[in-house]
Amino acid sequence: MTAQIPTPQTPTDVPAEPTGRRDVQILPIAADTTVLRSRSWERLRFEIEYALEKGTTANSYLIRGNQVALIDPPGGSFTQKFIEALKGEIDPHDVDYIILGHINPNRIKTLKVLLALTPQATIVCSLPAKLALEAAEVTHPVQIVKGGSDLDLGQGHHLEFIPTPTPRWPGGMCTYDSYTEVLYSDKFFGAHICGEDAYDLNREQLLEDQQYYFDCLMAPNARQVETALEKLSDYAPRLYAVGQGPLVRYGVVELTDHYKGWAAKQKSQTESVALIYASAYGNTATIAQAIARGITKAGVSVNSINAEQATTAEVKDAAENSAGFIMGSPTLGGHAPTQIQTALGVVLSAASKTKLAGVFGSFGWSGEAIDLLESKFKDAGYSFGFEPIRVKFTPDASTLQMCEQAGTDFAQQLKKAAKKKKVVPKVAASSVEKAIGRLVGSMCIVTAKQDNISSAMLASWVAQATFTPPGFTVAVAKERAIENLMHTGSSFVLNILAEGKHLGPMKHFLKPFGPGENRFEGVDTKETEDGQIILEEAIAYLECEVAGRMDCGDHWVIYATVNGGEVIDMDAKTAIHHRKTGTHY
Predict the structure, then answer these.
(1) Which fold has domain 437-577?
(2) Which H or E run contains 411?
């Protein structure tokens, strides 16, 4: 017998702070089951996964059978609001179990406050999560679960636990309630978006956010994601009770298929990078995530290796079979952690000296671990794909953007080297390719700015798409640095160049830029009222907002609406890009 999932009801809200930027949304989602959605209406943290700046939710769940289970308390930024909301729903002394889908330093902050209110509760988690709790000096009764472990709460609620570890969350675990057919999916199937809709009512619009979430968190762990999906295929949930964002009620099958396709796409890439790291306080892992995002968006897969959990054989296999490798480490007491030192020795002995290397890390004072990695690889004769990245304390948004660009540059160097090795006979362009090359586009420079992060690119695949509202499409290669500034709702400027005067701007924006390098150095610019960048050399410009984007092979097709603009030079003609073939720019 299974319980019916109720029709979505109007939620009750714990009163928000005066700014209205933090609140907790509460509503029933199944029999005896309630969600507490701790909502942040602004960007929560500087991790790359929050870069779309649509806020987020931290979803916690109460199951009230004969015994009561609380699943996934939120992170430290929500502690006070969450505890207030929880007390409004239940006496904390009635909570029998606290189930942890994953553990990190941020969640531990709330957990310590919660445990003081629930001394009778038992923590239910995986062995790696228990070890993390012990390292954080959390002393409380723990029930360790493995694959196949279960828990009977009574009144039909029988919970099954499914380990779903990844390098970033080695203690990852999903929970399935066979009575309500709800899968508590933790980090899987979520999205960082905050809104009144508790469910996936607008699936097409939500898909972009779900894919971005996957690209940031799951793409570097494609192998583990496929393993997890295989485990989850044994169940038939009607609802994904996700850790972040809207609950997935209407698109369970569809989103699962997308996850399978996205993971398979990552595994099918011809080149891969071994990303080996350890992280004491989460900062080094945050940097690793940004670098991985840059690599994967450029069409190269990532094999993430958490040195604290991986075996020597796993590190050796990754170093031998990847086209390049990148190592990251925190500095603890002036040294690299023992696990990183061990992994370093394995990489030095296993990785060919022709492979591209990279180094990064975070530190509080001196950063000796980063120096150690750099000197060892340099002495061994490895070439570096980017300058070693040193981040003091917590990385900010501009630092993470630079890390993402470093990852993209690293991937592009690997692809270029692979292309040189591959002997491809020259074949004359076909008549179709030549015909495609006759599609003529205006030469433009796309400029975009968010906060203190700005970027630009040369564009010629531009075409008007609509009259009302006025709109056009522009194709953006996935490996472009500007791509991350052109998600739905983002603003940018399309600068149209003049015939005969386009070579200067064209050469400037075609040249390679280093991660974090100012693309507008030496270029005359001015700003729109909302801070977007206009090139002084443009003969006209359009102020635009991204209304949607479509995944099209190696490009995103961006549909933008026009909010303003001006013709600066009425007499000049628009520069046109003529191509010999449709296979390249």
Answers:
(1) Pnp Oxidase; Chain A (2.30.110)
(2) helix 397-421
